[in-house]
Amino acid sequence: MNHSLLLSCRSGFESDCAAEIQQRASQLQVAGFARTKPEQGYVLFECFGADDAARLHRELDFRQLVFTRQWQVVTAQLDVDQGDRITPIIQALTELPPCARLAQDWPDTNEGKQMSGFCKKFSRPLENALGEKLLAKSDCVLQLFWLNGTTLYIGYRLIANSSPYSMGILRLRQPSEAPSRSTLKLDEAFSILLNEQERELYVQSGQQAVDLGACPGGWTYQLVRRSMYVAAVDNGLMAENLMASGQVRHYREDGFKFEPIKHNISWLVCDMVEKPSRVTQLMLKWLTQRWCRYAIFNLKLPMKKRFAEVEQDLQQLKKGLAQTGLHFEVRAKHLYHDREEITVFACIHS
Ligand SMILES: C[S@@+](CC[C@H](N)C(=O)[O-])C[C@H]1O[C@@H](n2cnc3c(N)ncnc32)[C@H](O)[C@@H]1O
């Protein structure tokens, strides 16, 4: 069997996820085609070459895939009998490399959600049956993706090149003191777009930050929580509890015209609802003029051809940053808490 890749995404974003993997595969000269249906919450990318799915999974950087939450190489699709699901799963393992542990996912859809309880109950008996087939030293996870109680995809994913979270979803609790639900986006962005080492290095207490389009203060709250001093730029009203922290100055100004007095800003964040190309240009200005070191910002997506817009904006950003001649990073993700937008991290290293 020629293996395929299974990529899960937010329901409704299948065509963007498909367009992205199609393009990334062709950049690696891997031929294949994406199969998906609207609202099913995942995409299958069928490769023509026998080892191509494994190669894509190894060589594409998961952190560079915007619309994919989680992914796996599919080695088999199974229809199992409710009476004995375990035997066919064990029989299908011959095509798999040794795996360190078992993970079970399902599409993030209303139908898929019903698999949650089943998978919880099924884990223990399946792990018992797997026994020594699970090797602690392996760099892979045995990944099952259940469409319903009897149909599943079986395969693996590389631990170092996939999301550590079940279904690629980081669930966060809304802090009661935060003034808006958008606060979760920035919290998630710090966790997903930076790894642990980068968080330790880039996010430090006492840093200066600017929040463009800050009101009512959900993103500012995340910066204040991380002990930063924040210039909050917006014509709206900021939450009083944030102003009382003494860490926030409110500037009732246009975020596109605002310039910090001192160019010693560590973090620029921006959640203004504006054309994505315009926000991209603004971020590029702040980064290339060295007004800030790190930026996290949202790009609001158009109704159609969302991947094309994202690709164009990110290319523009990378091109502009490359012109500095300095080492830079750009990563973007359609986060769990994002809806019609993606979140981007960018920085220039001195
Ligand atoms: C989605 S809300 C931001 C929510 C905020 N991140 C939070 O977590 O509470 C967008 C904000 O951008 C502001 N905004 C839009 N255009 C702006 C501009 N040109 N300059 C400053 N603020 C702007 C709006 O007033 C609005 O408060």
Structure description:
The protein is elongated. It has 2 domains: 4-168, Alpha-Beta Plaits; 183-348, Vaccinia Virus protein VP39 (Rossmann fold). The protein is an alpha/beta fold. The chain contains 11 helices and 14 strands. It starts with a strand and ends with a strand. It binds S-adenosylmethionine. S-adenosylmethionine (SAM) binds next to helix 8. S-adenosylmethionine (SAM) is lined by residues 179-180, 182-183, 213-219, 233-236, 254-256, 271-274.
Tell me the CATH superfamily of the largest domain. Vaccinia Virus protein VP39
| Total strands | 14
The CATH topology of the largest domain: Rossmann fold
In DSSP terms (H or I, runs of 4 or more residues), the helix count works out at: 11
What is the helix content? 25-40%
Helix-strand topology string? EHEEHEHEHHEEHHEHEHEEHEHEE
Structural class: alpha/beta
Task: State the low-pLDDT regions, or none.
Answer: none
What number is the mean pLDDT?
96
Return the CATH class of the largest domain.
Alpha Beta
Shape: elongated
Which small-molecule species are bound to the chains here?
S-adenosylmethionine
Largest sheet: 7 strands, mixed
Percent strand: 25-35%
| Count of spatially separate domains | 2
CATH architecture of the largest domain: 3-Layer(aba) Sandwich
Radius of gyration: 22 Å
Enumerate the strands of the largest sheet in spatial order, edge to edge or round the barrel.
Answer: 2-3-1-4-7-6-5
Keywords: Cytoplasm, Methyltransferase, rRNA processing, S-adenosyl-L-methionine, Transferase
GO molecular function: methyltransferase activity
Enzyme class: transferase
Family: Belongs to the class I-like SAM-binding methyltransferase superfamily. RNA methyltransferase RlmE family. RlmM subfamily.
